[in-house]
Design goal:
- The complex is a heterodimer of chains A (264) and B (266).
- With 264 residues, chain A is mainly alpha-helical.
- Chain A contains 12 helices and no strands.
- In chain B, 36% of the residues lie in helices and 22% in strands.
- The chains are: A mainly alpha (264), B alpha/beta (266).
- The interface between A and B is medium-sized, with 20 and 26 residues.
- The structure holds adenosine-5'-triphosphate and magnesium ion (MG).
- The site of magnesium ion (MG) has 3 residues of chain B, from helix 1.
- The site of adenosine-5'-triphosphate (ATP) has 11 residues of chain B, from strand 2 and helix 1.
Chain lengths: 264, 266
């Protein structure tokens, strides 16, 4: 079993690498061959060159760090808020009943549409970006936690009650750990959404960050700059996602291995 | 007369139907009176939905009866208490805890010191033949082993009364017999009192001193059979006795099992 899955994993990695080379080659020469001008799709070499230039002239590292920091801040705060609210609503159906119409409305509202509002309130600072990220991360985390707490087997809670557990003990020993797997599903979604929230915030109003460079590149007709920004944003998203997966592996180590493999 | 360990006195339980008023309550059990002596094992059988689990939950103090009272050692049950522990068909093992940690759950909640807890868990797991699996997670164990672990967790809090709701009904026939043997030996050795719900008539005869038969809902106790076969601590032996078949036959008659098979009602 192990040997064969190891083999197929290695084959998978090799295939992916080969595919990458093919894609890069197609990107480099394909557009030119089909007569697409470089200002529509710049070849890889142009993008790499632009990356080098941007590092020197545009303080690319600084912009990337700002965006990454905003993503982390928005993700962490949004997740914490989502968890706390999820736990509270999960444990108190009465509160949920009162709040549910507002939560539903806010959940349906496109969160990124709040970006201009936040910029009007807080100006060209980091706050609007982090706020949009918080808002957009909050919902998947909150909903997953809420549902998980609601669906804990009542017999498990009765078991704890039969040992004379307090409400708080039942939460600590049963509900909180039981909600972990869905929480992590929510966090994974949140990790990718945080990037979207921050970028929109930066695009709408800012003078720093990759979202700003995106708009700046567009304004100056620098397609390669737009490409560089998109790639870096994707990398930040991947890093955030992998960080969640890493934490998940640590925390949910008790789950059967098969599931853990599938859930990646 | 010796004081009963657990006693149900004129118990009636009504459940409110969704959104209904007084009139729409379901009467789950009606006017049930029963008492179990120290070290006695009593089985409770009856058609599905007759209120067996309801009786057990009231004994655990999970909810109160609508009328009447449950007493354990002469004390009125007003909520979960230290004398009673329950075990269900579901093992209710927490997947994020090792088997040992699962066994310790009750003591942990009750605030028993760690060292004492671990000692007791080790001892019980040894007795339940799960010694090597103490540090495994539940998903790494078979159904029978998991149910053994659940039994160890139930015993870990040292209850005087065990309430068991079809604990073996999800197991295959062989595993079931092995666990029945284990349970019977344990109950005998530790001198526990037990109320045992089952749908398996032979199981009820093999394991208990007495069998209570309930009617369709609203459940009441319609018959009591004293199992007069020696060796309650050894059901494997006991099953070989001729009288077992007679008792099973009697139970089938009381439950109208034959009529149901012939008719269309299930
Ligand atoms: N919490 C509840 N709310 C409403 N009705 C309930 C509740 N618990 C039980 N009932 C009803 O009470 C009746 C008895 O249920 P109970 O679970 O005690 O039956 P049972 O004898 O254990 O059945 P089974 O053999 O199938 O386990 C059923 O009609 C059930 O629908
Ligand atoms: Mg039942």
């Amino acid at each position: 079993m192990n040997g064969s899955s190891g083999m197929s994993l290695r084959n998978g990695v090799i295939s992916s690498a080969v595919l990458l080379v093919v894609i890069l080659a197609a990107w480099e020469w394909g557009p030119a061959a089909m007569g697409v001008p470089a200002y529509i799709i710049p070849p890889v070499s142009d993008v790499v060159r632009e990356f080098m230039i941007m590092q020197e002239t545009e303080k690319l590292l600084m912009h990337s760090s700002i965006t990454a920091a905003e993503v982390v801040a928005g993700f962490v705060l949004g997740s914490l808020l989502g968890m706390v609210v999820g736990y509270i609503l999960g444990m108190s159906p009465a509160t949920e009943l009162v709040l549910s119409p507002y939560i539903l409305a806010l959940q349906i509202a496109p969160k990124v549409a709040f970006a201009p509002l936040f910029v009007m309130w807080f100006g060209y600072t980091v706050y609007p970006k982090v706020l949009v990220a918080i808002l957009i991360v909050f919902f998947p985390v909150m909903v997953n936690v809420l549902t998980a707490i609601r669906t804990v087997d009542p017999d498990l809670k009765n078991l704890a009650r039969s040992f004379r557990a307090s409400r708080w003990t039942i939460f600590r020993k049963i509900e909180f750990p039981a909600a972990m797997p869905p929480l992590f599903s929510g966090l994974r979604i949140g990790a990718t959404l945080a990037v979207i929230g921050v970028v929109v915030g930066e695009m709408v109003g800012g003078n720093a960050g990759l979202g700003y460079l995106l708009v700046f590149g567009e304004g100056s007709g620098n397609t390669a700059m737009v490409f560089v920004s998109i790639i870096l944003l994707t990398l930040i998203g991947i890093a955030a996602y992998l960080a969640v997966i890493f934490a998940e592996r640590k925390v949910l180590h008790y789950l059967p291995k098969d599931n853990a493999a599938h859930s990646v | 007369m010796q004081q009963p360990r657990i006693e149900y006195k004129d118990i009636t339980k009504r459940f409110m139907q969704n959104g209904g008023g007084e009139g729409s309550a379901i009467v789950a059990v009606e006017d049930v009176t029963l008492s179990i002596k120290d070290k006695e094992v009593v089985s409770l059988i009856g058609p599905s939905g007759c209120g067996k689990s309801t009786l057990l939950n009231m004994g655990s103090g999970l909810y109160p009866p609508s009328e009447g009272e449950v007493k354990v050692d002469g004390e009125r049950v007003s909520g979960p208490n230290d004398h009673v522990a329950f075990m269900l068909q579901k093992d209710l093992l927490l997947p994020w805890r090792t088997i040992r940690q699962n066994v310790e759950l009750g003591q942990e909640i009750k605030g028993t010191p760690g060292k004492q807890r671990r000692e007791r868990a080790r001892e019980l797991l040894e007795k339940c033949h799960l010694g090597q699996f103490a540090d495994h997670y539940p998903h790494q164990l078979s159904g029978g082993m998991r149910q053994r672990a659940a039994l160890a967790r139930t015993l870990a809090v040292d209850p005087t009364v065990l309430l068991m709701d079809e604990p073996f009904s999800a197991l295959d026939a062989q595993t079931k017999m092995i666990l029945q043997q284990d349970l019977a030996e344990t109950l005998e050795r530790e001198g526990k009192t037990a109320l045992f719900i089952t749908h398996d008539l032979a199981e009820s005869v093999a394991l208990s001193d007495r069998i209570l038969v309930m009617s369709q809902r609203p459940g009441t106790i319609i018959s009591e059979i004293v199992v007069d076969i020696p060796g309650r601590g050894n059901p494997m032996e006991r099953r070989h006795q001729r009288k077992v078949a007679d008792y099973v036959g009697e139970l089938m008659e009381l439950l109208h099992v034959g009529d149901q098979a012939a008719g269309d009602e299930i």
